[in-house]
Amino acid sequence: MSEWWRDAAIYQVYVRSFADGDGDGTGDLAGVRSRLPYLAELGIDAIWFNPWYPSPMDDGGYDVSDFRDIEPVFGTLAEAEKLIQEAHNLGIRIIIDIVPNHCSDEHPWFKAALAAGPGSVERERFWFRDGRGDGPPNNWQSRFGGSAWTQAPDGQWFLHLYSSRQPDLNWTNPAVHEEFADVLRFWFNRGVDGFRIDVADGLVKEPGLPDVTDPNGRLPYSDLDGVHEIYREWRRIADSYPDKRVFVGEMWLPDPQRFAMYLRQDELHSAFNFDFLSCPWDATRLRQVVDATLAAHAPVNAPATWVLSNHDVTRHVTRYGRADTSFSFADRQHQAPTSLELGTRRARAAALLTLALPGGAYIYQGEELGLPEVEDLPDELRQDPVFTRTKGTDIGRDGCRVPLPWSGDAPPYGFNTTGTPPWLPQPATWASSTVESQTGDPASMLELYRSALQLRRTEPGLGDGPLDWLPHQPNGVLAFTRDGAFACVVNLSDQPVDLPPHTEILLASGPLDGARLPRDTAVWLHQATTPSSS
Ligand code: GLC
């Protein structure tokens, strides 16, 4: 049985911003279908779709009002079925987002809960509580800012770890378990190959909903032991299908050991590696993250994943050009100065690093075009509830969600053919970032990704398997082999370094300096095979 997910290159499609087939300014499934050949040519193995369900779009679709249909602005269920089939015909697998921690306030369950009133079975599917005095039932804070509780018209409060339009579901209620088991089957039966689980650590809350006493310690709504029982239940469902169906968990957890517990053989197949994403562009720190990741995954025999960007974080071209190259939600930087030239050089090197590490890799749409964060969106056009709930203290995530540029010299750059302005404006500077202008240019980011993804398929050492660090490297250099013959060398020091002995250069992220590797550059090599290079 193929364990395709162990080394898949998975491309993340944020549907709203990928391609607009019907020309209304918002991306849709027709747009995705028309661009499947592009994705096949890019060389990816699977697509992960951000939520495509009916939604009022308070949180970009993470506020789901019906888990068994498609958002009408995106298309229809019949179209999704066609898309799955067409992707499969091209050898591309499909992963969709499931959002089990909460739903939209427009979900029929929540509307029924509001109507039914205190003490009803309808309210038992959520977390309704009486307040403490005039205030909310406890001191929990929404991850989007402000209290995690909102008052219903009748005076009771309901819990929402995210926006007030995303009420948390109550996983102590068997009806919630049954509903999601059925939703998983609904989509598995339509051919989806896996699910990305939103806020996978958050479903179980500590009984009694106690106050948070230490905001930097264990939270009473994250990573409680009971959550593993849910994933055991889900794994049994996935395993009931004859071909391999998989789960990838979204957990931002500080403790690698606790993280790996989700990846035990009867739970999730994989999870996003946010330690790698958050890590600064620094050789020592990156090596520590790689080692810690591999060490945490090995005992549970789960493949690592490598992620540089997604729809929640500042695009890495922009991050890597700043003085502080790390990412953290707590101190999301506001327009900290960046050099896009430096950031792009590093992003190119980071692509080769990421795609050479053992396990699976995620590519966020537009990363293959080298898109930067769009930092100058007018405030009145920002749609992320993070921006409004924090009153702009956190600028939010719109800047990484700007629609993709495909062709032409001016917006909408082929995002649609009607010329309708996209739902977020694209920068005037993106003409040189389009797929059209990069195609065939050997120096472009797109061609670098195409070549790297191609080699990932043909180089036997790449993907799943061991990694051995090359000994005796200069400070600031990351160098490792995969199977002895293939080596990846990344120079994060501030000067050129000698390349290790090699028989062939397969790919470089930038021009070499004779036989030397310039700073912020990576190279893939063949070296003469040694029996053991560790
Ligand atoms: C996850 C998603 C994010 C969303 C949040 C609430 O972190 O990646 O986009 O806002 O969950 O569903």
Give a written overview of the molecule:
This protein has 534 residues and is α/β, with parallel strands linked by helices. It has two domains: 4-102 and 174-445, TIM Barrel (Alpha-Beta Barrel), CATH 3.20.20.80; 108-159, Alpha-Beta Complex (Oligo-1,6-glucosidase, domain 2). The chain has 14 helices and 18 strands. The strands form four sheets. It has an eight-stranded parallel beta sheet. The longest helix has 17 residues, at 340-356. The structure holds alpha-D-glucopyranose (GLC). Alpha-D-glucopyranose binds at residues 59, 62, 99, 162, 198-199, 250, 311-312.
In short:
With 534 residues, this protein is an alpha/beta fold. 25% of the residues lie in helices and 13% in strands. The structure holds alpha-D-glucopyranose.
Write the layout of secondary structure elements.
Layout: E1 9-13, H1 29-34, H2 36-42, E2 46-49, H3 77-89, E3 93-98, H4 108-116, E4 128-129, E5 149-151, E6 157-159, H5 174-188, E7 194-197, H6 227-239, E8 246-249, H7 256-261, E9 270-271, H8 274-278, H9 283-297, E10 305-306, H10 316-319, H11 340-356, E11 360-364, H12 385-389, H13 435-438, H14 445-458, E12 468-469, E13 477-482, E14 486-491, E15 497-498, E16 504-508, E17 516-517, E18 521-526
Parallel strand pairs: 1-2, 1-11, 2-3, 3-7, 7-8, 8-9, 10-11
Antiparallel strand pairs: 4-6, 5-6, 12-13, 13-14, 14-18, 15-17, 16-18
